[in-house]
Design a protein that fits this description.
Keywords: Nitrogen fixation. The chain is mostly beta strands. Helix content is 0%, strand content 41%. The chain has a single domain (14-79), classed as SH3 type barrels, CATH 2.30.30. A hairpin with a 5-residue loop joins strand 5 (57-63) and strand 6. The relative contact order is 0.31.
Length: 80
């Protein structure tokens, strides 16, 4: 059974803020496992919109400050 793709709510270049605390899921080997990467309310900019192939969900690469790009789901960010 094919899951219908969900269209992205947000666009490349859009300013957003973290709606939840974002923790390291193992994507950042130089940061502690489960360590806090971005706290609620921190602002960033969407630098790429991709798709989680298995779940067919939009994934947003959000740049929070210099050189910290975090992959976020829609429920983890909100527009400014």
């Amino acid at each position: 059974m094919m899951i219908e793709p969900r269209l992205p709510k947000y666009q490349w270049g859009q300013r957003v803020k973290a709606a939840v605390d974002l923790h390291n899921d193992g994507s950042f080997p130089d940061a502690p496992a489960e360590g806090l990467l971005v706290g609620v309310g921190h602002t960033g900019e969407i630098v790429q919109v991709g798709r989680h192939t298995d779940a067919n969900l939009p994934i947003y690469l959000v740049e929070f400050g210099e050189r910290l790009v975090v992959g976020c789901l829609e429920e983890e960010i909100s527009p400014l």
